Amino acid sequence: MRLTAHTDYALRILLHAALVAREGDGLLGIGKVAQEHDISRNNAMKVVNELASAGLLETVRGRSGGFRLARPAEEITLGAVVRLTEPCLNLADCEHCILRGNCGLTGMLNRAMQAFLAELDGQTLAQAAEGSRLPSRARPKLLAVEPARADPV
User: Fold this and answer.
1) Phi, psi at residue 76, to the nearest 5°?
2) Among residues 35, 37, 40, which one has the least CA distance to residue 11?
3) How many other C-beta atoms can be found within 10 angstroms of the C-beta atom of residue 140?
4) Which of 30, 4, 2 is nearest to 17 (CA)?
């Protein structure tokens, strides 16, 4: 089985957002994330909008807007993301096969897909983020706040 590029982009964007959330509360810009992951801005925008509509990302409009995780990475399963973004989870085109209805392969492939999804249902975005690190160039630039200095007495 091979996941579509759309699902690949969704998983990468969510993982990127989870890594940023782990380090602080920065907003990610679509243009920068698209560039970092070598995704067209248009495709990144579609993915972010779909993930936002599903309640996985929160978007902030405006000049200094962007997006971030809408809920904790521990609550987002990879299985849910794959189900959301994959247009078809059938492993074979049984619809157009002359053996349809009389084939032992169909049940085997369905069980394999269910096992695949069950494995992903047991894995969270937080678990995927545990073994991942953002390169420094991919981190959002957060505004640095100077600590207050005590007046000399």
Assistant:
1) -105, 115
2) 37
3) 18
4) 30
Cα–Cα distance, 107 to 109 (Å, whole number): 5
Whose tokens are 């929160």? That residue is 58
- The structure tokens 């990127």 sit at 16
Q: Which domain holds residue 104?
A: 5-137
Residue 7 has pLDDT above 90, yes or no: yes
| pLDDT tens per residue, range 60-80 | 988 888 999 999 999 999 999
Average pLDDT over residues 123-140: 80
Q: What are phi and psi of 13, to 5 degrees?
A: -65, -45
The whole-model pTM stands at 0.83
Residue 146 in domain = no
Domains: count for the chain:
1
- Does the pLDDT value for residue 23 go beyond 70? yes
| Angle subtended at Cα 130 by Cα 125 and Cα 133, rounded to the nearest 5 degrees | 105
Domain CATH number, residue 101: 1.10.10.10
Q: What 3-state DSSP class applies to 72?
A: coil
